Amino acid sequence: MEITVIPSVNEARADDLINKTVLVIDVLRATSTMLTALAHGCRAIYPVETVLQARQLQQPGYVLGGERACKKIPGFDYGNSPFEYMDDRIAGKHLIITTTNGTRAIQKSSKACTVIAASLLNGKACAREAAALNKDIVILCSGTQDVFSFEDGICAGQLVGELQSLLKDRGTEWSVNDFGLSMLYAFQQVQSDITRALMNCSNGKRLCKLGFTDDVIYCSRLNLIQMAPVVRGGKLSAPLVDQLT
Questions:
Q1: Which reactions does this protein catalyse (predicted)?
Q2: pTM exceeding 0.85
């Protein structure tokens, strides 16, 4: 099994993702937020690229969420902080969400066989799901404005490590590209204090400056949620068996 880690959405070619399992990462904060919404009862999430697409999809019973420049989009119900999706208001709702990087990466992966929303919060569950599908795996870091982001790389390293253990136990031969191997070593280096590492990276510093320190702390937690949300028919949802740990 081949595992390929791509540093940013700008470096991904849609045709190269055909017949593969793609794990899309946007730790700060899109995939972390979408996962949190599903874990708190959101019925389904529609990730779209633009504000216009989000408004066009809106209908009774649907809510709008998303950000531009880390701030809630005017007129939307929610922003992109996971803490906005932790109460009963999101339970049973359909969420349409657009973010600067994460939802674009999900759209870029539309030709893949399976697309899974991954973060530090659910790395173990995502690795388990991807390994079970028994196809070559692409780990796509969303990045920021087409540039690699440290926190996504650390999550990629987490996923590579989890996959390495799972495939070894199964006796499955596997390989990982050099960038993925580098991210595995980076994750191992900061694993003992991931919160500090994320607070010191560019996106972590920016979010803290904007008042979202708690978001960074929350998004740095490992394997808090045992859920691997999958995109099907343009919407992200989770199996009924998944739950918060």
A1: (2R)-O-phospho-3-sulfolactate + H2O = (2R)-3-sulfolactate + phosphate
A2: yes
